[in-house]
Design a protein that fits this description.
Nuclear Transport Factor 2, Chain: A, 2 domains, 10 strands
């Protein structure tokens, strides 16, 4: 009987020690993962090129040539120029498309129209729940050119370059824009003035 009690007590202490070591290892693993994610974010920020303003008032010849390389000889392209991007508006696969070229005449990304039903299901539920007093006016998809590290500016706000949806909503006397990730996360992005 004594042996059984002593064995039970020893087993109890062994399990507690093992549990404490497992918890300590888990905390150590979490710290290591957090450190790796932080290092990745720092590297991405370091690798990111800050936006440079375009020079001149006209669309660059290089942007037009790069556009032809990217999209072919499109007939209905209309060009515009702002502080940071040369912008091509054209029809691709039956959809009105906007392509943005940076200071180095490299494609930053494109914008195409999308539908509310194109958003990830989690995002649709989130918007219906938190923005039920708003009406979805427009949804667009920003398709990032992954080989260009430059960020993009939409609705007068800069964001990290990643494929994302943007939804314009109106209600309560104002118009807002939501940023929706491919994973279905929804973020307030800006107010349209």
């Amino acid at each position: 009987m004594k042996t059984l009690i002593v064995t039970g007590i020893a087993l109890f202490f062994a399990m507690n020690t093992l549990s404490a070591q497992t918890e300590q290892n888990l905390k150590s693993d979490i710290k290591r993962i957090d450190h790796k994610e932080s290092a990745l974010r720092s590297k991405k920020k370091k690798d990111r090129i800050s936006l440079r303003k375009l020079e001149g008032k006209d669309v660059s010849y290089q942007s037009k040539q790069q556009f032809i390389s990217d999209f072919g000889d499109v007939k209905d392209v209309r060009w515009s120029h702002n502080s940071y991007f040369d912008q091509a508006n054209f029809t691709k696969d039956g959809k009105q498309t906007e392509a943005f070229y940076d200071y180095d005449a490299q494609l930053v990304g494109t914008i195409t129209p999308a539908q509310f039903s194109d958003l990830p299901e989690a995002a649709q539920k989130d918007i219906r729940k938190h923005y039920k007093d708003y009406t979805v006016e427009r949804v667009v998809l920003f398709d990032d050119n992954e080989s260009n590290p430059n960020d993009m500016i939409l609705y007068d706000a800069q964001f990290e370059d990643e494929d994302s949806y943007f939804a314009e909503l109106s209600g309560n006397g104002k118009k807002i824009v939501l940023h929706i990730t491919q994973d279905g996360e929804v973020f307030y992005f800006s107010e349209v003035k």
